[in-house]
Amino acid sequence: MDFIWQSFLLIFVGILLLRISGRKSISQMTLATTVVMISIGTIIVQPIIETSVVRTIIAASIFVSVLIALEYVQLKFNLFENLLTGKSIVVVENGELNMKNLKRLRLTVDQLEKRLRQAGISNITDLKTGTIETNGQLGYEFTEDAKPLTIGDFKKMMQAYGYTFPVQESEKPSIFNEIINGHSSSNPDQLQ
After folding, report:
1. Model confidence pLDDT, tens digit, residues 79-89
2. How far is the C-alpha of 185 from the C-alpha of 192, rounded, in Å?
3. Pairing mode, if any, of strands 96-97 and 89-93?
4. InterPro entries this protein is in (predicted)?
5. Hey, which CATH number is domain 89-146, 3.50.50.60, 3.30.1490.20, 3.30.240.20, 3.20.20.140?
6. How much is the pTM?
């Protein structure tokens, strides 16, 4: 029955170690992060099969420490960032596919088009630049004519025609106020 409390201990320590390693590690899985997270998962399961919980906690702590050190070195030195994480690769330039980079990424035109559709882009010619980021996500910038109209752009356009906008009333409560101003004891009115 010892394996039951050991399992709970390992789950708690695993959550604690992942929390210490940071949100970036969980949300933006780079190659190095993926290897470390898989390794931690494998290590955490080992004591249930084997016998040493302490050795497992130490090993998982070492993995997380190395991950934090690698992320710190990447922040300080561009050379290490390029070496460990890499750079974004341009796959669309001025509305044209960059076939050389698509081949380098082993990404087919159909796979790229699928990513574009998922991002709500229906025409490659609407893109000034399209990239595959280091985490595998699609990055893009629209051409001037394809950019959506923002409220700020609309206001500028209307002001050019002589329309004046009324002064805004006082700032309405925001769901971000708690984060910005510190934690409060009650939920915002909008969420109750």
Report:
1. 888 777 778 88
2. 13
3. antiparallel
4. DUF421, UPF0702_alpha/beta_dom_sf
5. 3.30.240.20
6. 0.57
